[in-house]
């Protein structure tokens, strides 16, 4: 990820905070579930913003809510993520209009929503470490 200027970083942080509130409070699309905005990356000319999101409280294949929202997504989870991304992409113009009213910048960047896999990947790595520690403990119970 290229290094942003301090001004671009401040704008990206403000866009992230505002979008998190706007998505939950202003967007009334039923396809959008519990979405968390994990980061915003601005282009150098501040014309485009990549908005990284994660989807929380996804459903399991059996239809039950996951105990941990960070499990490996099944087919239903992937469909839910795609639906959230489609709905957010469709609402991008509306969100941009709402951002223009809240931000004190000349032009509001065009929004592109991207699913952030880093949280899921971190959970997978954490599970691997836990499995390795459990296997080590089973091989060396006395230590």
List the helices and strands and how they pair.
Blueprint: H1 6-25, E1 34-42, E2 48-56, H2 75-90, H3 92-102, E3 110-115, H4 118-139
Parallel strand pairs: 2-3
Antiparallel strand pairs: 1-2
Helix pairs in contact: 1-3
Question: Can you describe this structure?
Answer:
This protein is α+β, with helices and mostly antiparallel strands and 143 residues long. It has one domain: K homology (KH) domain (GMP Synthetase, Chain A, domain 3). It is 48% helix and 17% strand. It has a three-stranded mixed sheet with strand order 1-2-3. A hairpin with a 5-residue loop joins β1 and β2. The model has no long low-confidence stretch (mean pLDDT 85).
Major sheet attributes:
3 strands, mixed
Q: What is the distance, rounded to the nearest whole angstrom, between the alpha carbons of the first and last residues?
A: 43 Å
Q: Give me the Rg, rounded.
A: 19 Å
CATH superfamily heading: K homology (KH) domain
Report the structural category.
alpha+beta
Q: Strands across the major sheet, in which order?
A: 1-2-3
Q: What percentage of residues falls in helices of 4 or more residues? A: 40-55%
Order of helices and strands: HEEHHEH
Uncertain segments of ≥5 residues (pLDDT<50)?
Answer: none
> What's the shape?
elongated
CATH architecture: 2-Layer Sandwich
| Number of discrete domains | 1
């Amino acid at each position: 990820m290229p290094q942003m200027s301090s001004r671009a970083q401040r704008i990206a942080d403000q866009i992230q905070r505002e979008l998190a509130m706007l998505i939950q409070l202003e967007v009334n699309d039923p396809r959008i579930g519990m979405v968390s905005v994990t980061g915003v990356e601005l282009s150098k000319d501040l014309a485009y913003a990549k908005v990284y999101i994660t989807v929380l409280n996804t459903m399991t294949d059996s239809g039950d809510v996951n105990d941990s929202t960070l499990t490996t997504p099944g087919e239903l989870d992937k469909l839910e993520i795609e639906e959230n991304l489609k709905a957010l992409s469709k609402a991008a113009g509306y969100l941009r209009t709402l951002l223009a009213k809240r931000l004190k910048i000349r032009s509001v960047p065009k929004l592109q929503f991207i699913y952030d896999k880093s949280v899921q990947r971190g959970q997978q790595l954490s599970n691997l470490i836990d499995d390795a520690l459990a296997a080590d403990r089973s091989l060396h119970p006395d230590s």
